[in-house]
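Backbone Fold Data
Goal — C-alpha cells
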Amino acid sequence: MTMRVITYCKDGNMEKALALYSRMIEKGVQPDVVTFSILIDGFGKLGDPEGAIGVYTELNIKGLKPDFG
C-alpha cells in the first residue's frame, strides 16, 4: 500500500494518498515512518504546510520519528 501512496504523492494527488492512508488504518495496517515521511514530503512539494504539519503531528502521536534522508 505504501507504494501506492508514493505514486499518488508523486502525482500530486494528496486526496487519494490520504484516502489510501485512511483505508490502511481501517484495515488494521499500521503506516510506518516511510508512509508518514512520503505524505509529509508530498504536502511540502505542493506548498501545503498545514497538511504536512497535520501528518507530522500524527506521526509524533504514534511515537515515530520522520525519515528525511
